[in-house]
Write a structure and sequence with these properties.
It comes from Secundilactobacillus angelensis. The structure is a single chain. The protein is of the alpha+beta class. About 35% of the residues lie in helices and about 40% in strands. The chain has a four-stranded mixed sheet. The longest helix is centred in the middle third of the chain and has 24 residues. The protein is elongated and about 60 Å long. The protein starts with a strand and ends with a strand. The model has no long low-confidence stretch (mean pLDDT about 85).
Length: about 110
Amino acid sequence: MAEIIVTTTENIPGQKYEIIGEVFGLTTQSKNVVRNIGAGLKNIVGGEIKDYTKMLIEARDVAIDRLRQNATDLGADAVVMMRFDSGSIGTDMQSVAAYGTAVRFIE
């Protein structure tokens, strides 16, 4: 799975490919109640909420892993035009999606 090339560009230099189709990886995560209280206090004084930053980094990594798995399941060699999207669900959950176009290399 780790061999799957994932790029935000449309073209991969030196490669010709055929399009397989859309692939995605999705995760929704939240922090525990104690950390949410700490984040609420940090919100009063301002500054980076490092626990949430860490959560989003982890969510991004999970979303990319799931994107790669989806591409592998379809027999892809790479994913082009990869993008992220994220959004809140309620007040304490964050959803992260990685999506792109799966391709198969041709000679």
